[in-house]
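Quick one: co-fold with zinc ion.
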Amino acid sequence: MKKIFMIITLSLGTLAFSTVNAVVSILPQKTFLEKIGGDKVDVSVMVKVGNSPHTYEPKPSQMKDISRANIYFSIGVEFEKVWLPKFKNQNKKMKIVDMSQNISKHKKDPHIWTAPQKVKIIAKNILDKLINIDAKNQTYYEANYQNFIATIEQTDKKIQNILNSIPANSKFMVFHPAWGYFAKQYNLIQLPIEIDGKNPKPKELIWLINEAKKQNVKSVFTAPEFSDKIAKQIAKEVGVPVVKISPLNPKWSENLQNLAKAIAGD
Ligand code: ZN
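Sure, here it is.
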């Protein structure tokens, strides 16, 4: 009996060491982390589908995920400011590392993962942190990292091809300004409807409608995390469709290609 108990304890011990228990803030981070961590990393996500990381509050059950975690990957989204210190309190042994390290940010814009260029830096950050916490799987992580970099580069080329059909500095209209880094990388201009997290005033609304007509926007983008009431109103006035696309979609590569297609009016 004692022997069996010992075997169980030993195998549980190995299990606990062979897997990195990680928590991330948003779904695209889970995608990136799993690409590099593969089956050595177990990832749970704070902000579930349909929620916004600008206003999120973790559930009590998610605090249990925090208790079990070895590492938390932050990315600089809004709810982290209040919650990271609470997570640290909940689990003092958990490392908190920053996926957005070495990335230059636009003022007040946390949506860095919408630009393939920036995701390359995110990938390198993930690789470094994983090797740091689990050095014995370094070769495995490095191979996965190389594959992921290749995927990012392919994604970038596909997006460039799609956007070749429209002139540089083309404008696209969005409710929530989540695509600033994407716009910058591909020489596009994002026209946001929401200003500093608030709905436009009637005067601003009229300006937006005129601007959308003048700039020949092909659609008005909105995300499932937000009300699409105003986006619908503008789209109707301009005579273009409302396209729902979330910056938090876990299918990162396809999602960006779909955005590019919709901007190009494909
Ligand atoms: Zn956002």
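If it helps, Residues 54, 111, 176, 178 surround zinc ion (CB under 6 Å).
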